């Protein structure tokens, strides 16, 4: 079937703009070109930044109620056009149509929560008289926007991740310039269109599409950009930190998430949750379950049940509502996953199920006996592969969980509260889910990690805090004139 190729424009300072050059967006399932998108120049990125800066500086006061109204309108628009958004997500990315529909619901909620949190950007009074000699001073602090936010988003959540940048930025009163992933820019452009339809003042939002090599550095280094919010890989994250200079940084850089299953856990529940956590979004999920440590007494039973459940997953057409697993974002990524598995097997790993590639598809794969020095044991696989290990104790499981240079989220399955609290205290992660897999998240909670997993926290209220500055106000009162 022939797919009509859409000619897209990007949003610069409230105006839809074509590019002198374009690049193709393809459906990773079949390689069909679905859109041609502007390949922005360095000059166009600088133009977007400078327009954002002028807009921010010349807007004397952008009332909170206006920001709330716009965000609410966008949330309503998204709900009314949910299927349209879902079709775009599923067409340009890896998610099945059911997963795409779930992402639209979450993204609309992200925008709605942003509207609600805009009401709560508050300061507080300060008791200056706690300091001797300051008895005649009163004051407070309040929060104000940083100005221009530069945002860079990945391909795996092409709508909700964009919403997590734009929603808090607008709620706080900032202008924002966003560069979406080049393989999945259509969802970001569709969300930008929703903001235009909602009446967002021109200049507060630009979505600039193109090559990171061409437009990434201007976004990161331009002095008018006061904060960078980045979600992506650790190599790109380190590059940004070296280039950004004295800017605020918020970074989520991935993980290699562990889950612990103790012998007192509900085994059926643990299997169901971890299979979903390992293979949803074809494993292209920063919270995805990558390592599972199972107490030895139940290891064989857990492994057999997990393998059988994995084998039941349906791989195929992502637009089919019965499909569980679609393709990876492109064949190159599938080849990388394949090579990492082959390396692990060469070092003694056993493929319990899966391990087969067909173009951009890679079957859900379970590995055992994986060497600690295998790449797949140390790095983020970002694919449908999970490693399962036996352990002798909770202590060993925690130690091995902490052994990699990531610490985003983790999970533990147990019926013992003392075991849960031991893991809570000793696992070096940004979030720990009790009787849930590592991939559980709601968009209102603080989200971020330790070690190589990033800097700062996202989640709407916490992103707003990062996208604002605090200003202290102190009044020295005159002597009583009465």
TrEMBL record:
Keywords on record: Oxidoreductase
Domain Aldehyde dehydrogenase: 16-473
Domain of life: Bacteria
Family annotation (Pfam families): Aldedh
UniProt entry tagged with the keyword Oxidoreductase: yes
PANTHER family registered for this protein in UniProt: ALDEHYDE DEHYDROGENASE
Protein name, UniProt field: Aldehyde dehydrogenase family protein
Species this protein is from: Halobacillus seohaensis
